[in-house]
């Protein structure tokens, strides 16, 4: 007979991570309760009920005739999405091959920590509101995301084929046949999903003046034409929901080539090298250092005063607001995912109920967070409330969809005398999907942080609010410092997430196919 301690050791090893996860959940909920007191969640809109009623009436009678440039906006949205995602994927793949280099990982972090809307604001100062600005903004942000995901896929590849090769596969042929070839299906899966993300991001870029569907939506909302705005949103839903019909594997290369060819045929405004140098070499240089004597003590004293005023009045308040919005949205996202995933599990919701649940989750996860916040600001006013609700609903719906699919696959393998209803949910499914739920939450955490930063463009006082204000007043030196603060905050959150994930023994492998 084996000693009792020998028998219990595996159970103890399995129980420790679960206990740690439970402890982390309670700590997270406690901190969220405290954050509620520090956050600005007031409703400042004069008549939110009237706005909601007008929105509902607009969705009841969508007016597609209100879209004067519908065809052009739709074509440019798709063109920007395919072009930007393709360029970002190529650049990200190149970085992923060198993912073990610290400099490459830092470059990837820098690129993906700045939202495509912020990149677009900078690029537009050189190119103007041209489609090429949208493509470059999308490509810059997505290249960092692709690099991280592709790099993780390569790191997680089965090491046995590589070890079987001479020299442990440390050659070009070993890289190709032992790591790249087995990883191609995962690369392709993530690329196709990024196309869906790219369509949403491309549409959102219209909110800063670029000619995609978001520009039409922004214009119609500002005019109070909610029936036309509803038509734009329905068109975006139709694009995403119909992807399984038109986004075929063999056709994707043709779509990408067609998008690049169409972009090349457009009459773009001239990209001035002098304008680019003016932005990078002059405008982004801190004001006290422009034309000053670098050897003079007064120069650096003036720079220190300038930097301290910027940090104390904009960076720290913006970072604090960003953290508050991100954290509350993160916790709300987890709560929504936990209680919403049964909506698409037939064993819990029934066949008809699960079908309806799929529709609800598709609508929530297909609507870009920026658009949800935009609508929320119209209803509640520019407080943190619309941002927290929008980020929590959107990301919670994504995770609920993924966990619900996993739970649906688990049900047939359970024992015949399994409980039903609430018992099936609480005692059989939740314990089995909890690890995946935590993994997805950590993965979405960085995305929630990025989105929280740029929501300041809508008047919510996160870091993006100060960046937008600085660019609007042509103070690019201030904007550059604020963007660096975004990168540092993202790096800090990324480091903390990886450390906590290791402690809880939560891997990143299950998060690879999703943005």
Describe this structure in words.
The protein is an all-alpha fold and 515 residues long. 76% of the residues lie in helices and 0% in strands. The chain has helices at residues 4-38, 48-60, 70-96, 102-113, 116-127, 131-155, 159-164, 172-204, 213-222, 226-241, 243-246, 252-265, 273-283, 297-340, 346-366, 369-380, 384-410, 422-454, 463-472, 476-503. The longest helix is centred in the middle third of the chain and has 44 residues, at 297-340. The protein is globular. 42% of the residues are buried.
Task: Supply the key terms.
disordered C terminus; single chain; disordered N terminus; 515 residues; globular; mainly alpha
List the helices and strands and how they pair.
Blueprint: H1 4-38, H2 48-60, H3 70-96, H4 102-113, H5 116-127, H6 131-155, H7 159-164, H8 172-204, H9 213-222, H10 226-241, H11 243-246, H12 252-265, H13 273-283, H14 297-340, H15 346-366, H16 369-380, H17 384-410, H18 422-454, H19 463-472, H20 476-503
Helix pairs in contact: 1-14, 2-10, 3-6, 3-8, 3-12, 4-6, 4-20, 5-6, 6-8, 9-10, 14-17, 14-18, 14-19, 14-20, 15-17, 16-17, 17-18, 18-20, 19-20
């Amino acid at each position: 007979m084996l000693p009792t301690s020998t028998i219990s050791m595996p159970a103890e090893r399995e129980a420790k991570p679960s206990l740690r996860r439970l402890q982390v959940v309670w700590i997270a909920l406690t901190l969220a309760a405290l954050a509620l007191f520090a956050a600005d969640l007031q409703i400042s809109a004069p008549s939110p009920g009237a706005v909601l009623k007008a929105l509902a009436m607009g969705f009841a009678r969508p007016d597609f005739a209100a879209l004067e440039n519908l065809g052009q906006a739709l074509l440019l949205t798709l063109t920007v999405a395919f072009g930007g995602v393709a360029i970002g994927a190529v650049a990200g793949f190149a970085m992923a091959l060198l993912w073990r280099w610290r400099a490459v990982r830092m470059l990837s972090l820098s690129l993906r920590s700045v939202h495509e809307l912020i990149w677009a604001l900078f690029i537009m100062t050189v190119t103007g509101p041209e489609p090429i600005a949208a493509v470059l903004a999308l490509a810059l942000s997505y290249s960092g995301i692709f690099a991280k995901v592709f790099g993780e896929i390569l790191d997680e590849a089965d090491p046995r084929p590589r070890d079987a090769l001479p020299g442990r596969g440390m050659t070009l042929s070993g890289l190709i046949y032992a790591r790249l070839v087995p990883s191609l299906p995962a690369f392709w899966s993530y690329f196709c999903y990024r196309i869906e993300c790219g369509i949403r991001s491309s549409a959102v870029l219209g909110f800063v003046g670029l000619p995609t569907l978001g520009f039409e939506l922004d214009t119609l909302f500002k005019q109070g034409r909610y029936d036309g705005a509803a038509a734009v949103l329905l068109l975006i839903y139709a694009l995403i929901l119909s992807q399984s019909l038109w986004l075929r594997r063999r056709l994707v290369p043709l779509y990408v080539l067609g998008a690049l060819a169409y972009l090349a045929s457009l009459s773009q405004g001239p990209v001035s090298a002098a304008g680019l140098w003016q932005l990078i070499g002059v405008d982004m240089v801190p004001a006290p250092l422009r034309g000053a004597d670098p050897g003079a003590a007064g120069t650096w004293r003036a720079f220190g005063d300038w930097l301290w005023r910027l940090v104390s009045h904009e960076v720290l308040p913006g970072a604090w607001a960003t953290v508050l919005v991100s954290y509350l949205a993160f916790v709300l996202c987890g709560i929504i995912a936990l209680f919403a995933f049964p909506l698409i599990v037939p064993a819990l919701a029934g066949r008809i109920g699960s079908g309806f649940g799929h529709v609800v989750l598709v609508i929530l996860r297909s609507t870009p967070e920026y658009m949800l916040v935009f609508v929320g600001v119209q209803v509640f006013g520019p407080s943190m409330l619309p941002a927290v609700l929008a980020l929590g609903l959107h990301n919670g719906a994504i995770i609920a969809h993924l966990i619900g699919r996993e739970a649906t696959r688990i049900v047939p393998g359970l024992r015949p005398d399994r409980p039903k209803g609430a018992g099936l949910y609480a005692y059989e499914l939740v314990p089995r999907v909890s690890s995946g739920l935590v993994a997805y939450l950590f993965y979405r955490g960085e995305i929630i942080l990025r989105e929280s930063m740029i929501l300041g463009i809508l008047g919510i006082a996160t870091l993006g609010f100060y960046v937008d204000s600085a660019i609007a007043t042509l103070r690019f030196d201030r904007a550059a410092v604020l963007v660096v603060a975004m990168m540092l905050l993202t790096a800090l959150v990324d480091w903390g997430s990886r450390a906590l994930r290791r402690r809880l023994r939560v891997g990143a492998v299950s998060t690879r196919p999703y943005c």
